[in-house]
Amino acid sequence: MPILKENKSLYPDNWKQIRAEILNRDHHKCKWCRLPNYAVGYRDHSGEFIPNGGNLYCDAAGCGELEYVEAREMVKEYNSWHSEEYRWIVIVLTIAHLDHDPQNNDFENLAALCQRCHNRHDIKDRQRNRKKRITKDQFELAI
Ligand SMILES: [Zn+2]
Question: pTM of the full predicted structure?
Answer without folding.
Answer: 0.75
